[in-house]
Amino acid sequence: MTEERQPASWWLHKAHARVTDWERRGGDYAVWARSDAKIVQEHRPVPFETGAPCQECGKAWPCGMFRAVLASD
Q1: When you count CB atoms within 10 A of the terminal residue's CB, does the N or C end of the chain come out lower?
Q2: Is the CB of residue 43 less than 8 Å from the CB of residue 57?
Q3: Does residue 16 sit within a domain?
């Protein structure tokens, strides 16, 4: 299964893991983690089961803001 076809829960778990990792690293990473945690909380799919659209920006989910959290560091 490609990333595009993963369920919403897979994307959310991956984003939460990224935020947790950055919090543990500390320093500047902790600052990014706080910012990204807010994005992950706000940019969720509605309804959750279907994965679209984003409740914050209305774009197809996972939206660009949510994907930015998962971008390579």
Answers
A1: N
A2: yes
A3: yes
